[in-house]
Amino acid sequence: MNRRPRISSRGIVLAYVLVAGAWIAFRDRMQAAQQRLARLNRVLRTLSLANQALVRAPDEQALLQSFCDAIVREGAFLGAWVGYAEDDPRGSIRPLAWAGPLEDYLETLSLTSRDEPQGRGPTGTAVREHRTVVSRNVATDPAMAPWRARAGALGYASSAAVPLRSGDAVIGALSLYAAEADAFGPQELALLEELAADLAYGITTLRARAVAARTETERRRLATAVEQSDDAIMITDVSPTIEYVNPAFERITGYAPADVIGQSPSILRGGVHDASFYAAMWEALSAGRTFRADIVNRRKDGTLVTVAETISPIRDPVGSHTGYVAVLRDVTAQRAAEARAAAEARERTLVAAALAGIRPGAAPEETAHALCIQIARLPGTAAAVLSSFDPDGRGTILGAVTAAGIRLPRRRPGAARSRYLRTRALDGPWIEAWTNPLGSPFGESFRELGIRALAHAPLIVEGAVRGLLVAASADPDATEQLTERLPALVQFAGIAAAVLGPSLLARAESTEARARISDLLARRAFRPVFQPIVDLERGVAIGYEALTRFTDGTPPDQQFRAAAAAGLRPDLEAATLRVALEAAHGLPDAAWLSVNVSAAFVLAGEPLRTILREAPRPLVLEVTEEEAIADYPAVRAAMAALGPDLRLAVDDAGAGFASLRHISELRPALVKVDRTLVAAIDSDPIRQALLAGLRHFADAVSCTLVAEGIETDAELAALRALGVQFGQGYLLGRPAPLGQGADGTEG
Q1: Quick one: 685 and 556 in the same domain?
Q2: Distances (CA, A) of 370 to 63, 341, 350, 362, 470
Q3: Same domain, yes or no: 313 and 385
Q4: Which residues, 6+ apart, have CB-to-CB distance to 580 below 8 Å?
Q5: Does residue 12 sit within a domain?
Q6: What Cα–Cα distance (Å) separates residue 633 from each residue in 625, 642, 649, 671, 672?
């Protein structure tokens, strides 16, 4: 009988241990498989949710954040983040989105894609080497040394980084962290790479969409700008035929789109530019160059418009010409303004030249000629005339010249023409057609020049019209030309008034004064008066000064100055001297007569010499001090020639040009002390000292002092105390005609 093998208890135990160990190993394998399967399922769910986010994400940042959130929430990873590779010298990797407790950790990473410690971790290596990189155990991986402590504190046991590819380039990386070591198996990595690929696709798609949106926005903005541009825009094909014009085109050219679409741009030609201009334009365009120029086009209504036009070739992607685009800006007004500015600049240059050409002290005729030369150079000006108005209203031509620099004869305008011009000038500048009116001094000359119109600008001096500046034009559009030049002409008139004003006023005053003084002389509208010269010790009149009074009440010094300005002072001096000598017959026989004469009258010799021969008594000539004496020896010689019996007196010592040198040079017998030293001398020590010095000087040169203007008893007493011998003044006797007290009688 067969016997069963006997199993010992020891074998049973061993068998039990083996079976239990196999069971435990099986169980562990099953649990690990279940865990890995669960992780794969979570990654699959993450992939599904991430793909949904891919569809829903409004922008790139939202997409990145959605992926990170899904990885942490559904994939059961401790953390996930996306970093982009920066285009900088360091090769920085910049975190853009993250989920999990990563914010503080990411701030300390300082990652780079370069092969250096900060770039040898999973993320830096993935970006640099374009591959998925896993750190299976953070605690033992040497590449994780820079971040091990911080990662361990956060519970990160393993990590993986998957590059984000856009075409052949890596734009960044997706990085994940797990709580267990060796958490990233081949299947998980395959799914994560698929997830990274989807993320990269989403990034690329959103970027393309953003570019398309920006392109569309730019297109719309460009279309809006073109439609709303103030500049006209015209697009043609290569033929060229107009394919498009914007709204501004109609405003500038007058042509609506329907008028020109399908037409040649030559429809706009204004007929101003010649064939060579357009040949140069097409030569540039055919060579692919942009053509820029001012072009004069003709609007639909026939008027001309100047446009600053830029024409550029349009090229397709391979560089072939497919058409042309032209931008037209209306610069008609601008070019006209620039032309006016250029003309004004030229006018200012002419004004400066006119000022530079004026010679100080030149005669008015010379100055007027210099001004007319510059005025005749104004554009469109054929001739220039500058005239003055005399006090009687007649005009006098000071200068007249053509644009060629030829002087015109300076004939005086007729009386009627002068009156018309002066009356019209009162209303300011004006322009009128040239019709060769009667009395014009330039009828023949203006006909030869073909003059069509004249511009007039008055010369205003001290508020009155003293002259007229005239510019003549022979252009077909003479009135328009002169209208543009009128401001410059007014400016020239202002210069002429400033430069010629003093001489014009002087001439006018001289003319008026000459007429008035001539009338005064003809009517003998003056009479002599006599003022006694008194011996202050004895109180008796020892002589008389002859003075002149004018019937119109004009002060004598003013009247004599006017006569000098008119060139008639010698005539007035001679006339008043004769009248005084005639009237002096009634003076006391023992008294001498003092008469006033100018140094110029003395120097002239005649008629003074003849007049003095008729003097009925001893004479003293008082040389007036209205102007300085330049040649003392000549005056002394002229006095000597008048005769040995004449005595000389110097008037106004202490005022005017009188001086100690003056007295010493002329060596007078009498020196008349001016009222300015005599007034209040009784109470003024300074005047007293001055007069004492003057008396001492007079004694030294053997002349006698005559104090003028004595009006008070106190002044008289002070003068006597100072040893002044003679005096005159209202206290001693006022100037009066004979018979009214001048001869010492009661009349």
Answers
A1: yes
A2: 86, 25, 11, 10, 14
A3: no
A4: 528, 546, 548, 593, 595
A5: no
A6: 17, 14, 16, 19, 21
The reply to whether 493 and 532 lie within a common domain is: no
pLDDT tens-place string over residues 470-480: 999 999 988 98
Q: Give CA 211 to chain center in angstroms.
A: 48
Helices and strands: H and E segment counts in the chain:
23, 23
Can you give the CATH number for the domain in which 492 is found?
Answer: 3.30.450.40
Residue 606's pLDDT band, with cuts at 50, 70 and 90, is: confident
* CA 144/CA 118 separation, integer angstroms: 9
Task: Kindly state whether residues 372 and 324 are assigned to the same domain.
Answer: no
- If we measure between CA atoms, which residue out of 211, 210, 215, 247 comes closest to residue 231? 247
Question: With the CA atoms of 497, 498, 504 and 509 taken in that order, what torsion angle do they form, in degrees rounded to the nearest 10?
Answer: 120
Q: How far apart (Å, rounded) are the C-alpha atoms in residues 124 and 133?
A: 9
Q: Please, what's the largest Cα pairwise distance for the chain? A: 218
Q: pLDDT value at position 697?
A: 86
Position 16 pLDDT exceeds 70? no
Looking at residue 533, the DSSP 8-state letter turns out to be E
DSSP assignment of 414-463, as one string? PHHHHHHHHHHHTT--EEEE----TT-TTHHHHHHHT--EEEEEEEEETT
* Cα 77 to Cα 13: distance, rounded to the nearest angstrom: 44
CA distances from 678 to 65, 84, 743 (A): 113, 110, 25
Give the CATH number, domain containing residue 258.
3.30.450.20
Indicate which CATH number applies to the domain containing 546: 3.20.20.450
pLDDT in tens, 154-187: 999 999 999 999 888 999 999 999 999 988 888 8
Q: What is the pLDDT of residues 176-233, one digit of tens each?
A: 999 999 888 888 888 888 888 888 988 888 888 888 888 787 878 877 778 888 899 9
Amino acid present at 196: A
Domain range for 192: 33-209
Provide the 10 A C-beta neighbour count for residue 93: 27
Which DSSP category does 313 fall into? E
Number of Cβ atoms within 10 Å of the Cβ of 84? 18
Among 81, 90, 181, 71, which Cα is nearest to 128's?
A: 90
Q: In terms of residues, how long is the chain?
A: 747
Q: Are 592 and 702 in a shared domain? A: yes
Q: Is residue 241 a contact partner of residue 264, using CB atoms and an 8 Å limit?
A: yes
Interior/surface letters 580-615, b for 16+ CB within 10 angstroms, e for the rest:
bbebbeebeeebebbbbbbbbbbebeeebeebbeeb
pLDDT of residue 747 exceeding 50, the answer is no
Two structure tokens written together for 264: 């040649």
Distance CA 401, CA 385 (A): 7
| Alpha carbon distance 495, 197 (integer Å) | 87
Nearest to 456 by CA among 445, 469, 465: 469
Written as one letter, the residue type at 151 is A
Task: Answer yes or no: are the C-beta atoms of 412 and 375 closer than 8 Å.
Answer: no
Strand residues in 189-282 grouped as ranges (E): 232-237, 242-245
Which is nearest to 455 in space by CA: 421, 427, 483, 477?
A: 483
Q: Note the pLDDT tens digit of each residue in 323-350.
A: 999 999 998 888 877 777 676 667 667 6
Pairing of strands 453-461, 158-166: unpaired
